[in-house]
Design a protein that fits this description.
Length: 206
Amino acid sequence: MSREPLTKRQRTVYDFIRNWCDVHGYPPTLREIAANIGVRSTNSVYNHLKILERKGYLTREDMKSRTWRPVDAPASSITDVPVVGSIAAGSPILAHQDIQDTISIDRSLVDGQDVFALNVRGDSMVEAGILDGDTIFVKPGHEVRPGSIVVALLGDEATVKYYYPEKGYIRLQPAHPSMAPIYVRRGDKRSFSLIGRVVGVFRKVP
């Protein structure tokens, strides 16, 4: 099947994406494309990508950032997880998103789930292998099993703890020998909101 010819600039964009996918095994982001073909605007790159898609050279896997790949290239297993600086109760769960960065990881590491990342402050979960400065991956939702590690919102602060629903209250249990559990009355929506379940930990090695 013949495809429409490409302009010189479109060919440059297409060749860069193809070469990047061959080397890395996943597509580049808009910023990476812009930096490597010498343009400042990601909007300009996006317009080129839309044309390449229309002409039958590129396809999109989903709506995240590393999605544009040549139509004959294998699907990428890489997904971008947003690193959220602040979280709040409400609907949607991340009502006041403050996406500071993204982490590109293989989908299999988070079981293909739709997750966000949150930087950890403090050492209340050291015995669970979650250290100060780590980044945790969180599956949003209120349906979690007792004993799960969760992210909960207490007032304006997010906390990471083991989750134990008990009669009349919820116990948020730290994994630190010198720290006491936090007890929250059931139904106290003003001071407590369950954000989601921790499904993974990311740590940078010095």
